[in-house]
Amino acid sequence: MVKFSEFEKFRDAIQKTKNGFTSRSYAGAGHFFRGSSQKDLDERRRLTDEFLLKNGFKVE
């Protein structure tokens, strides 16, 4: 885990490249989403599935 300010530096550097990058932050969620609400977990699952499908992976 890193401080959020360090993540922001990483995010900003990636966005300057040709690589795609999407991020979300969830209040109260710890590393690996410990403490997340079910709503946040559901959203994370949906976004993950969308990313995988968009990049040619099969989602079951």
Poorly predicted spans: none
CA(first)-CA(last) distance: 30 Å
Helix content: 40-55%
Helical segment count: 2
What's this, in brief?
The chain has 60 residues and is mainly α.
Structure description:
The protein is mainly α and 60 residues long. It has two helices and no strands. It has a domain of 36 residues. Helices cover 48% and strands 0% of the residues. The protein is flat.
What layout of secondary structure does this protein have?
Elements: H1 4-15, H2 38-54
Using brief descriptors, characterize the structure shown.
mainly alpha, 2 helices, flat, 60 residues, 48% helix, single chain
